[in-house]
Description:
Keywords: ATP-binding, Cell membrane, Coiled coil, Hydrolase, Kinase, Magnesium, Manganese, Membrane, Nucleotide-binding, Phosphoprotein, Protein phosphatase, Stress response, Transferase, Transmembrane, Transmembrane helix, Two-component regulatory system, Virulence. The chain folds into 3 domains: 2-141, Beta-Lactamase (2-Layer Sandwich), CATH 3.30.450.20; 186-287; 290-446, Heat Shock Protein 90 (2-Layer Sandwich).
Amino acid sequence: MRRRLTLLVAATTCLVLLAFLVPLAVLLRDAAADRAAVAATADIQGLVSLVGTTDAAGLGLAADQVGAMGGRPVTVFLPDGSALGTPSERTAGVELATRGESLTVAGPEGREILVAVQGRPDGTAVIRTFVPDAELTRGVYRSWLVLAGLGVALLLLGLVVADRLARSLVAPISELSSVSLRLAGAELTARARPSGPPELRAVATALNHLAARIQELLREEREQLADLSHRLRTPLTSLRLESESLTDPEEAARITNRIDAVERAVTGLIRQARRRGATEAGTGGPVGAEAVCDAAEVVRDRVAFWSVLAEDTGRTLTVDLADRPLPVRLPADELAAVLDALLGNVFAHTPDGVGFSVTCVPMVGGGALLTVADAGPGLPSAVLDPAALVERGASAGGSTGLGLDIARRAARDSGGQLELASGIGGGARVALTLGPPTRSPAHPPA
């Protein structure tokens, strides 16, 4: 934008200078020519009174003197055809002037000035002088150089002013762009400094108001999430008390384990909301800090929890886990919530007795590949694009449509992605690539 504004001012200045300097240059040229012609005419006007009163010898001497003083040839053509003064040919202009008309004839080498003198008894005499082009354009080229220098100086001055003006406009716009990018990068504390023209100051103020409003809305959302999670603790506590009153120890232990899982999920939501709030406020820990967990251990723990329900519903569970730690760039509670959402979909959308498998293997370059596949009816036939099922709130099975979106966002936050496809032998297959930590942890993740 700065370059375009400078070019615009340069083009406008050039047009104005051309419209002003070109006519002025032509005027200077014509004025110099007219000045030389007037001076030559004034020189030969002194001979007019001598033509009718002085003899030929005196008239020739006077013509020579006038020519020598003016530096131009002066010739007097008498009616009898004789010529006095500087020798010169009898041109067509001289013949025309003998009719009693004074005139100026422009030629290829200069101007011929002819003055007709009447009153002689033998006819009309003609006084002729010649002004060469060098005299007609004397000082013109120097004046043109001065004008050209003035034009260049004005153009440079205009460019300097245009650059200052463009800088005053571009600097606030660049700052607004920088602040917008920082806000897009979740740095919600970024603010623009209102500067520049009133319109840009208004935009900066509106951007700051928008950032403040986004912070306020996110803070309200986190508070509502924390409040909702906290409210769930009361019914969970009631369920725990009821489970402890069961007479069957195995049933009481099974219900208690499930209550513990729900409490962990609720606690994870609260911690996640606080962690995001602290990060947006700029107090989320040192720069570059990231959450890391051992994907193999988290998957092993959650599979052990869901294996009890799989046994109760007659499902065959196949597990393939790495025998070494698999650090990934994701908190343990978020990875547990992802696996719970995917396994919950298996139990919710496939009939009892349908088997499923869970694999978590290392990837080349670090990270892990988590796959959940089942032998159920597969993806809905009405869904042509499997990616449409991952959209938040989209569900072809009557559920909330949040499980796959949770998994997709978790994979994206870790630097990976989610793939949804049909299995080789039927059923559905969900594969998550989980990125490795950007820095190796000091201690293996627990």
